[in-house]
Specification:
Layout lengths: L1 H20 L19 H33 L1
The protein binds zinc ion.
Length: 74
């Protein structure tokens, strides 16, 4: 379980790194070298999607842990 969680975190961190390392011209209205370019929707949407998935996984893992610990106490 913990090993799977570590892998999931590694994948999430890699996903965040790749979206921040995209350096390319050709879209949006801001200068690609400007820090504000990271606020373009094409860059924010993957981060938002990743945050939603991370929250869902966190809640699911927490629910499983609570369920297991309450089953052990019986
Ligand atoms: Zn861009």
């Amino acid at each position: 379980m913990a090993r799977g969680l570590e892998r999931l975190l590694a994948v999430g961190i890699c996903g965040l790194c790749t979206t921040t390392l995209w350096a390319h011209p050709g879209h949006g209205e801001t200068d690609p070298t400007s820090p504000l370019h990271a606020a373009e929707p094409i860059h924010l949407l993957p981060v938002a999607a990743l945050a939603v998935v991370a929250c869902a996984v966190f809640l699911l893992v927490r629910k499983l842990v609570v369920k297991r610990s309450s089953a052990r106490q019986r």
